[in-house]
TrEMBL record:
<dbReference type="Pfam" id="PF02881">
    <property type="entry name" value="SRP54_N"/>
</dbReference>
<comment type="function">
    <text>Involved in targeting and insertion of nascent membrane proteins into the cytoplasmic membrane. Acts as a receptor for the complex formed by the signal recognition particle (SRP) and the ribosome-nascent chain (RNC).</text>
</comment>
<dbReference type="GO" id="GO:0005525">
    <property type="term" value="F:GTP binding"/>
</dbReference>
<feature type="region of interest" description="Disordered">
    <location>
        <begin position="38"/>
        <end position="82"/>
    </location>
</feature>
<keyword id="KW-1133">Transmembrane helix</keyword>
<dbReference type="GO" id="GO:0006614">
    <property type="term" value="P:SRP-dependent cotranslational protein targeting to membrane"/>
</dbReference>
<comment type="subunit">
    <text>Part of the signal recognition particle protein translocation system, which is composed of SRP and FtsY.</text>
</comment>
<feature type="domain" description="SRP54-type proteins GTP-binding">
    <location>
        <begin position="370"/>
        <end position="383"/>
    </location>
</feature>
<feature type="binding site">
    <location>
        <begin position="287"/>
        <end position="291"/>
    </location>
    <ligand>
        <name>GTP</name>
    </ligand>
</feature>
<keyword id="KW-0342">GTP-binding</keyword>
<keyword id="KW-0472">Membrane</keyword>
<dbReference type="GO" id="GO:0005047">
    <property type="term" value="F:signal recognition particle binding"/>
</dbReference>
<dbReference type="InterPro" id="IPR004390">
    <property type="entry name" value="SR_rcpt_FtsY"/>
</dbReference>
<dbReference type="InterPro" id="IPR036225">
    <property type="entry name" value="SRP/SRP_N"/>
</dbReference>
<keyword id="KW-0675">Receptor</keyword>
<keyword id="KW-0378">Hydrolase</keyword>
<dbReference type="InterPro" id="IPR027417">
    <property type="entry name" value="P-loop_NTPase"/>
</dbReference>
Length: 397
């Protein structure tokens, strides 16, 4: 070997060693940053950096001591500093209107009958059957068809376009656009005279997608620049608390959960409300166990959660999550929950099959409370405020 080449070879080896060390350090840093961030379905609006809000957490992901109170060792799981940017409300509405419009099976069935040259009794019976199969309910169906027959006879029209406009007007009246469908997210004055976060209680039976809906609602509120705390009061399923922690981590939201399975759900609800108050959050969303409406013990437990969560300040919203495809069974569920949880609104999931869209009218008429949110897909941002006009237009294609 040439002696003059030895210094050059030494420098080459030193440079390679430095590059290898730099690559190793970069790999370790990335692994530490990603620890604890389980993936959600990809958001249609992509991911982005944190909002920089207080409480987003800049340290290592772990658990913080619970805020105090009589809970069963509840802890706050801080949000990861890297989280997704939720889709805006306006963008959701545009996309969800498009989805509803593509599935207007009810409207197609109605208009195919109303477009005939002559509407005999057989045609009217067919219309009645179509509306009943869409879960509109007997009384709303009877009222709508009676008014439609009168309008057609008085106007003397056979024009399908004109008849469609009359049907749209009558359906819209049944959905009732005058109902207040806003989600209460403003601070509530507490018994101590201080402003407290708006508490939203989520209830429903097993299989309706309640925990997932809680996560999606958190994303919706974060998109409206609200500071949110989640309470994992479904203590019978460890997977439910883990699932909620994943949703919260991806939008920079802290989750209060118990350290042990089977803990008292009311205690976790208490700790979540207290944590929200101490951190200055805008909203606290409490997820409860999916329960069968005919199980007296479970419903009594829900009543206890309601009493405990409402002690510091009145509960702002009590939302029942219903599967839109359950039809009249969903109405039976709604009646029992209304007695226990003092419902203020309905969240309808799986409404993408709008052939069953009549359930919107039926449940509102039964309970006298509005459908406030609808879910139309599996994506993390497939939850949007319910808009009556867009819904009726989608039904009619």
């Amino acid at each position: 070997m040439n002696v003059d080449s030895v210094p050059t070879l030494t420098w080459v080896l030193v440079a390679l060693a430095v590059l290898a060390l730099a690559a190793l350090v970069t790999f370790v840093v990335l692994r530490l940053r990603r620890r604890g961030a389980a993936p959600l379905p990809p958001s249609s609006s992509g991911t982005g950096a944190g909002s920089g809000r207080e409480g987003d957490g800049e340290g290592a992901v772990g658990t913080l001591p619970r805020p105090g109170g009589p809970g069963d060792g509840a802890t706050v799981e801080p949000a990861t500093p890297q989280f997704q940017v939720p889709e805006t409300v306006g963008s959701r509405l545009v996309r969800l209107r498009s989805r509803l419009a593509r599935s207007g099976a009810l409207g197609q069935a109605l208009l195919s009958v109303l477009g005939r040259d002559h509407l005999d009794e057989a045609a009217w019976e067919e219309l009645e059957e179509t509306l009943l199969q869409a879960d509109l309910g007997i009384d709303p169906t009877t009222a709508l068809l009676a008014e439609l027959r009168t309008r057609i006879r008085v106007d003397g029209t056979k024009d399908p376009v004109a008849i469609r406009e009359v049907l749209r007007e009558l359906l819209l009246a049944q959905v009732d656009p005058s109902m207040d469908r806003t989600i209460a997210s403003a601070p509530v004055l507490g018994a101590d005279g201080e402003p407290h976060p708006a508490t939203i209680l989520m209830v429903g039976v097993n299989g309706t997608g309640k925990t997932t809906t809680v996560g999606k609602l958190a994303r919706l509120l974060v998109a409206e620049d609200k500071d949110v705390v989640l309470g994992a009061a479904d203590t019978f399923r460890a997977a439910a608390a883990d699932q909620l922690a994943t949703w919260g981590a991806r939008v920079g939201v802290d989750v209060v959960r118990s350290e042990k399975d089977g803990a008292d759900p009311a205690s976790v609800a208490h700790d979540a409300v207290e944590a929200g108050f101490r951190s200055g959050a805008d909203v606290v969303i409490i997820d409860t166990a999916g329960r069968l409406q005919n199980k007296a013990g479970l419903m009594d437990e829900l009543g206890k959660i309601v009493r405990v969560a409402s002690r510091p300040a009145p509960i702002a919203e009590s939302l029942l999550v219903l599967d839109a495809t359950t039809g009249q069974n969903g109405l039976r569920q709604a009646r029992v929950f209304a007695e226990v949880a003092h419902l203020t609104g309905i969240v309808l999931t799986k409404l993408d099959g709008s052939a069953k869209g009549g359930i919107v009218v039926a449940v509102q008429r039964e309970l006298g409370i509005p459908v406030k949110l609808v879910g139309l897909g599996e994506g993390p941002d497939d939850l949007a405020p319910f808009d009556p006009e867009s819904f009726v237009d989608a039904l009619l294609g």
